[in-house]
Amino acid sequence: xKKTYLLTPGPTPIPENVLAxxxxxxxHHRTPQFVKLMExxxxxxxxxxxxxxxxxxxxxTGTGAMDAAxxxxxxxxxxxxxxxxxxxxxxxxxxxxxxxxxxxxxxVEPGQSVTVGQVEQALNKNPNTxxxxxxxxxxxxxxxxxxxxxxxxxxxxxNCISVVDAITALGVFDLRMDEWGIDVLITGSQKxxxxxxxxxxxxxxxxAWKWSESSDIPxxxxxxxxxxxxxxxxxxxxxxxxxxxxxxxxTLKMIKDEGLENVFKRHETLARATRAGIxxxxxxxxxxxxxxxxxxxxLVPSEIKDGKGIPKTMRDKYGVTIAGGQDxxxxxxxxxxxxxxxxxxxxxxxxxxxxxxxxxxGYTKFEFGAGTGAVLKALASS
Length: 382
Fold this sequence. Notes:
Blueprint: E1 5-6, H1 16-21, H2 32-49, E2 55-58, H3 62-73, E3 79-84, H4 87-98, E4 102-107, H5 116-125, E5 131-135, E6 137-138, E7 143-144, H6 147-155, E8 161-165, H7 177-180, E9 184-188, E10 200-204, H8 206-212, H9 224-231, H10 242-258, H11 260-280, E11 295-299, H12 309-316, E12 320-321, E13 323-324, E14 333-337, H13 344-360, H14 370-381
Parallel strand pairs: 1-12, 3-4, 3-5, 5-8, 8-9
Antiparallel strand pairs: 2-10, 6-7, 9-10, 11-14, 13-14
Helix pairs in contact: 2-10, 11-13, 11-14, 13-14
């Protein structure tokens, strides 16, 4: 027998009580019962997004909400600044190009974060910029962006909006949508919301809604005005991901019961413990200046020639699934998550499996227990 554990940056583990809900008979979405469910979810989502505005639900992954942000808010030919610190920042550039926008990309080396100065310089150089599109947490590299500071730059410009992909950030660390002037905030169900993939959430500021009225990019399924109109009646424009929304009601309650501040503190503690374990094993993080507390990206040590063997061995031999690197980072890094339905003992299991894997693959620069011991000490002192 082998138990399995999931420590990837999405999908993330799902609470047992949420899994049990999927065994119940399906609820039809055009009924008073579903309307009641949606009304409750609508209120709770505002709490997590820290906004007074509606949060729309789309039956898609988070990329669907990214696509919707572009098609609903901009015009063909608009100049937008995209911040590329990894695979998902690059995705903003690709989406913008696909719909006829003019993206000005700020690209940094993997593991680095875009600075506020770089954004300000790009805005000054391109005064007709209509939007700044970026990740609060770059999933492919484990880097956090200075979200508050970037949004503060943008909110001072009447003809520019901020669009923030918070797919691995919302519900992990503090993102005050209204207070910080975030114009568009996006997340996905399979991350800190602790649900299966298939549901995207997007909220727009009053400024962004005003802009949506003049967008000339064709749209049908991802028409946010239709979704907003449907939500006012406790519905969605199209057939919703009913089972996931039922689970969402439960996970939002769990977040509310724990309290956002405590959720953020828990994630900080788990990140600190994970990184203590990594350091004790003589390993280095990819992100050294602005690491996201959602996950830790670790450089494959030179002693291991096939870096893809680390996630493969952990999964196939020890039952712990983590993520490897993507594109140019494939085989060069591995990523462990510590957000969502994750607790301190999950971190111990992950670092323990990593110790065994490293020894199997010929890395011997540590004594057994060094990583797990460092995790325990970090947790005891938190």
